[in-house]
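Memo to structure team: turn this sequence into structure tokens by end of day. - J.P.
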Amino acid sequence: MKHLKIAVLALLLIASYSNANAQDKENPWMLTFGTNAIDISTASDATSGYFGSYKFDGNNVNVIPWLSRVSVARYIGKGFGLELAGAMNKVDRPWGAGSDVTFFGLDLNVKYDLNNAFGQTGWFDPFLYAGLGENWVGAENGLGLNLGAGFNAWISDNVGINFTSGYKKVNTPVDFKMFQHSLGLTWKFGNKDNDGDGVNNKDDKCPEVAGLAEFGGCPDTDIDNDGVMDCCDKCPEVAGLAEFKGCPDTDGDGVQDSKDKCPEVAGLKTLHGCPDTDGDGVADGDDACIDVPGPKGNSGCPYKDTDEDGVIDIIDRCVEVPGPASNEGCPEIFVDQETVNEAAKGINFDTGKSAIRPEVATILDNVADILKQNQNLQFRFSIEGHTDSTGSAARNMDLSNARANAVKTYLVNKGVSANRLTTKGFGQTSPIDSNATKEGRFNNRRVEINEVK
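Reply from structure team:
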């Protein structure tokens, strides 16, 4: 037993220096030879523990020290493989009384390499398996379910030590459960060399073309004379750069031609090899103002500010009239009062009437246009009605209010918001001319429009 421990430790020490990987598509076959031990759950297990007394007296754990288990496995892909395994042993009789009986099992298992899920671990190669098998126990036989785990400890690229431990539930005239453990030597093989150059496919950079080992299995040729051997040249017939695996960068901007949207004009990597003359982050080909920086959202052109008030036109509510940004580019003070006064000259009425005269309608149309201009929309206005001295003061007060309301109604119908307009009548109290003459009384029968401050 002491010598066996020393041998196992020596093999594990050797395995710790190995860089071998698991069974894979380059070594798809695996052959394993070894010995196995079986522990069948019997009545004696109730007092000695499920795994038995370990006295190796045939009572609980049964071991055949010579070759007693053989398996062959084939890698399928993505970590999965199929294994066909056969084993023989002598076991406690699972039913009835009597001496030990011969056991023989033939199993077909699906194996999964855990390195495929967690990454390669070098020499250590753990796996899980599940499958079905036919089991012969003495003169009886039955189908069994297999579940288990194990690992391979690789000594070299192709040779390793295999340990497997599994659970079986066997369906014979009397169902029983058992554990089967095995230790053996495993060998993986099947590596190919398609081009016959002595370099295995897994290490051959040119697996279909014969070459030299010093060039990774590729031939010593460089058709385009760019210093990149054809074996590693992605563009073998066009001279290129090593940093681009032999592919060209015609304009020398650090972007290889296959990824360069402007392969003949040096540009920026961030713009896929295209230039940006004004440095605004918009490639020249997409920039409507190639020499003046501007945002991408405006096709590389600066936003216009017609009134030069520092508020760009797209957010300036008064594009042609300067005003602070705090007021959306519109003036905070009404600057068009004189314009309104001038436009409103001539809003006069016939004696005793509040109807809008035809010539006054034209005047009011111009006034409405002024009040609706963007820079004036924030201001409110008072429409003030007046009369001459004809008639009673009370009658003239009502008439002045009617004239003011008539003008308001007209302006509202022309699109001026009603909440911006107020009306007030002054009657005959505020004449601007003499009531002693016909012309003076005409001038007094008027409406004025003023900003409400």
